[in-house]
From TrEMBL:
Residues 52-269, 285-504 form the DUF4394 domain. This is DUF4394 domain-containing protein. It comes from Runella defluvii. It comes from the Bacteria. InterPro entries: DUF4394.
């Protein structure tokens, strides 16, 4: 299932509408507001029977879709879920101390890493949330355990200080603010059903609790806690034997009922905003929402002297961002700080030929396709940084391919199609490359744009929507591309008008 853009953004209006109608207008915080006064804001709920429910704050007890989570180890159960701001993917932690990426449309789960993290999970009530500033998972349990986990390896990143600072506290829900890719500040909030209090965990790595205030309810359990990108916080709690969705006032701690939930809900997660990445001519990483581009920039460091990043893409197998360097090197990029790490011992054997490059992962074989405006057509190995194959030159004629993207951009895909943008004479055309290894271009249609060089292109793995960064008339814009006709529409200008190349959509979009 897909949601309209305003729902995926969770509406900044939620802050105004809910705050006004709920916290100010309601005389009784136990009385749920009229659903029609609430925004159309979706979220997902996890049940104790390994199911995902697609819900909305307007209809908290009426799932629009239900899927069973599959692909887990025998007898394993998911205990908590959260969306990763850097990619938009849904993650979960199991009672077997494993991290999974879960397709919220199909329920298919894929383990990250080959073994459980250590130390093992200690507790049955688990708070799980992404720290958006460093792209790491915070895990806290009612037993006081306080861990950081790595979303690309599934391993423990750090064992932090046990929860402290509040006598008798049993943390069962935790959530970070500022839940967007590329941000530099955030606050971690915790809910404790033992003391019925909201706390800040400050500093998070020390595990120290600082009280915010009373929840205003005598709850017996927390079944998930999350904060939307716009700052609104919701929690699933058990009160009087019933499971309810509550809005949480982060200033006071006070809860306001939004509606009833299915009785077996043990976790909730709010989708993060669509996220895209691009690079400019001075090796800055630009992070932005392709539907409303307001980039955050981070300098890419760790490259060879004088090297330029020519293309980027996320690896579906592990959610890691890869980059192509102008010295014929492959890199991984830390999306939170821009640090580049070279893959392999040196340049790959097939020296790059050209000035503009398509760079994209084939999700069916986990190899990188590189094509250039001079006709080069390579496959690279993401584990070694070496050339996997030198394929047939781009044909027929002498086309100038400047951007490439595969469909079905998710781990486990069994079919895919490679699309290219070609800009000979400035007239941008969309082609399929079929078969990819032969380099043969098959026309789809004109984008209707007079495009300059250095373009970016990618296709969402969940939505199937294609976006292109095209520079036309001296202005860089992001367009939606129709893969059936080739037509480009939209054309939102990038603030600051940077010279961008390469584009990678978060794998959850």
């Amino acid at each position: 299932m897909t949601y309209p853009p305003k729902s995926r953004l969770l509406l900044s209006a939620m802050a105004a509408i809910v705050a006004v109608f709920v916290f100010n207008a309601c005389q009784d915080h136990r009385m749920a507001p009229n659903p029609q006064t609430l925004p159309d804001a979706p979220f997902y709920a996890l049940t104790s029977s390994n199911q995902l429910l697609a819900l909305n704050v307007r209809a908290t007890n009426a799932p629009t879709a239900t899927v069973s989570i599959t692909g887990l180890m025998q007898g394993e159960r998911i205990l908590a879920i959260d969306f990763r701001p850097a990619t938009g993917q849904l993650y979960g932690v199991s009672d077997g101390s494993r991290i999974y990426v879960i397709n919220q449309m199909t329920g298919v789960a894929r383990a990250i890493g080959t073994a459980p993290f250590t130390p093992a999970l200690n507790g049955s009530m688990v708070a799980l949330d992404f720290n958006p500033t460093v792209d790491r998972i915070r895990l806290v349990t009612e037993a006081g355990q306080n861990l950081r986990l790595h979303p690309e390896t599934g391993a423990t990143a750090a064992v932090d200080g046990n929860i402290n600072g509040a006598a008798g506290a049993m943390i069962a829900g935790g959530a970070y603010t500022n839940n967007k890719a590329g941000v530099t500040t955030t606050v971690l909030y915790d809910i404790d059903p033992a003391t019925d209090r909201l706390y800040r965990q400050d500093p998070p790595n020390n595990g120290t609790l600082a009280e915010v205030g009373s929840l205003g309810l005598d709850i017996t359990a927390v079944g998930g806690f999350d904060i939307a990108p716009d700052g609104n916080a919701i929690a699933s709690v058990t009160f009087g034997g019933n499971t309810e969705l509550q809005q949480v006032n982060l200033m006071t701690g006070r809860m306001q009922k939004l509606g009833d939930l299915p009785s077996n809900v043990i976790g909730i997660a709010i989708p993060t905003e669509p996220t895209a990445y691009a690079v400019d001519n001075t090796n800055n990483l630009h992070i932005f929402n392709p539907m409303n581009p307001m980039p955050i920039t981070k300098a890419i460091t760790g490259l060879q002297s004088g090297e330029m990043v020519l293309g980027i893409d996320f690896r579906p197998a592990n959610g890691q961002l890869y980059a192509l360097g102008s010295t014929s090197r492959l890199y991984t990029i830390n999306t939170s700080n821009g640090a580049a790490t070279v893959v392999g011992a040196g340049p790959f054997a097939s020296t790059l030929s050209g000035t503009d490059f398509g760079f994209d992962f084939n999700p069916t074989v986990d190899r990188i396709r590189v094509v250039s405006n001079t006709g080069q057509n390579l496959r690279l190995h993401p584990d070694t940084g070496a050339t996997a194959a030198v394929d047939g030159n781009i044909n027929p004629g002498t086309p100038s391919v400047t951007a490439s993207a595969y469909t079905n951009n998710f781990a486990g895909a069994t079919t895919t199609t490679l699309y290219n943008i070609e800009t000979t004479g400035g007239n941008a055309m969309l082609y399929t490359q079929n078969p990819p290894n032969n380099g043969t271009l098959v026309p789809v249609g004109s984008l209707g744009i007079q495009a300059e060089s250095g373009n970016g292109f990618d296709i969402g793995g969940m939505s199937g929507m294609a976006y292109a960064l095209l520079r036309s008339g001296g202005t860089t814009r992001v367009y939606a591309v129709n893969l059936t006709t080739g037509a480009a529409t939209g054309g939102a200008a990038i603030p600051g008008n940077p010279m961008l190349r390469g584009m990678a959509l978060g794998l959850g979009f």
